[in-house]
TrEMBL record:
Function: Component of the transport system for branched-chain amino acids.
Gene encoding the protein: brnQ
Gene Ontology CC entries for this record: plasma membrane
Family under the similarity heading: Belongs to the branched chain amino acid transporter family.
NCBIfam families: livcs
Membrane topology: Multi-pass membrane protein
Signal peptide: none
Lineage: Bacteria, Pseudomonadati, Pseudomonadota, Gammaproteobacteria, Moraxellales
GO biological processes: isoleucine transport; L-leucine transport
Name of the protein described by the UniProt record: Branched-chain amino acid transport system carrier protein
Subcellular location: Cell inner membrane; Cell membrane
The organism's place on the tree of life at top rank: Bacteria
Record has Transmembrane helix as a keyword: yes
Organism: Acinetobacter baumannii
Length: 362
């Protein structure tokens, strides 16, 4: 879907997406999240405890990821069903056992809840993950002996719909869980603290064990999938052996994970604020190629603008806003960190008009 950007720009965007959901942010975060939510209450929050845990965690990820042909059997038939069952239990509990009263909104959620939720959604990295996981789904379909392109497309669409509905249900249950979390986890530093406190509230002493198993399964399945996807892609790109890349990616993820969850999130937010806008633009515009005579002109122009203003948003989030020119600090939607949206829409309209006019003149 990034082909209209041209070979070099498309390659850069793809590599950045793979690195973001791979060894830079998403894969290391699976280790830190599973430790801080499920295991820190037993082994403490010291850096040495996280180091030992992440070493064991990524050793398991490596073993499974080294044999991608068995991925469907290992993950699809064993780990994924257990993960779905555990998530279903948590989702039902969030609805049936509320954490407490719903307090008044605070901070940016008072005046701009939609944009605040939208920007915080960058942290899920689901958009980038969707771009990356495609190769895993396709390889899994091929491994079952399906070679017809129409059937591959059909099964990929079915898998996408199932995952989309599943993610929607998971997030709705998390919304419900978080609404009343103030009573069970006041002044929580991050979502991991809230989730742990809620499960303890809902399930008592057995809740910690349940949550440990749930988070470990969920994070492990994600880490394996991301590692396989990244290794597959970079093996095709660099011609390096797949298994060597697994060791490199896992080793890098292991190192980054030992920053801890809070630091990892703090580092990732500015970067995601910069790369998410162009990724969103590329995906959204892919639905409209057939309406344009020269999609590369429109997609390239709008994506470039989204990237430029995304970088500006990233610099502001990183604390460099005061060093930017004054007019950049007063752009529409600047306070919501969505300064890229209106310029991108303007460029989209202008380039679409140019595309139509040029075609008519020809």
């Amino acid at each position: 879907i990034s082909s209209p950007l041209g070979r070099i720009a498309s390659l850069i965007l793809t590599v950045v997406c793979y690195l973001s959901v791979g060894p830079l942010f998403a894969t290391p975060r699976t280790a830190t999240v599973s430790y801080e939510i499920g295991f820190s209450s037993y082994f403490g929050t010291s850096s040495s405890s996280l180091l030992i845990y992440s070493a064991i965690y990524f050793a398991f990820v490596t073993v499974v990821s080294l044999y991608p042909n068995k991925l469907l059997d290992t993950v699809g038939h064993v780990l994924a069903p257990l993960k779905i069952i555990a998530l279903a239990i948590l989702g039902i509990a969030a609805v049936m056992i509320p954490a407490g009263y719903v307090p008044a909104p605070i901070n940016h959620y008072v005046n701009s809840p939609v944009s605040e939720g939208f920007v915080n959604g960058y942290l899920t990295m689901d958009t980038l993950g969707a771009l990356v996981f495609g190769i895993v789904i396709i390889q899994a379909i091929y491994s079952r002996g399906v070679t017809d392109n129409k059937l591959v497309t059909k099964y990929a669409i079915i898998a996408s719909l199932i995952s989309g509905v599943g993610l929607t249900l998971v997030y709705l249950s998390l919304f419900k869980l978080g609404l009343g979390s103030h009573e069970v986890a006041p002044n929580a530093a991050n979502g991991a603290v809230i989730l742990h406190a809620y499960v303890q509230h809902a399930f008592g002493n057995m809740g910690s064990l349940f949550l440990t198993g749930l988070i470990f399964l969920a994070c492990m399945v994600t880490a394996i999938g991301l590692t396989c996807a990244c290794a597959e892609y970079f093996a095709q790109l660099t011609k390096l052996p797949y298994k060597l890349l697994v060791f490199i990616l896992v080793g890098f993820s292991f190192i980054i994970s030992n920053l801890g969850l809070t630091k990892l999130i703090a580092v990732s937010v500015p970067v995601l604020s910069a790369i998410y806008p162009p990724a969103i633009v590329v995906i959204m515009l892919s639905f409209f190629w057939k309406f344009w005579h020269k999609p590369s002109f429109i997609v390239g122009s709008v994506t470039s603008i989204a990237l430029i203003f995304g970088i500006i948003d990233g610099l502001k989030v990183a604390g460099f806003g005061d060093y930017l020119p004054n007019f950049l600090q007063h752009l529409p939607l600047n306070e919501q960190n969505l300064a890229w949206l209106i310029p991108s829409l303007v460029v989209l309209v202008v380039t679409t008009l140019i595309d139509k006019v040029k075609h008519k003149s020809i």
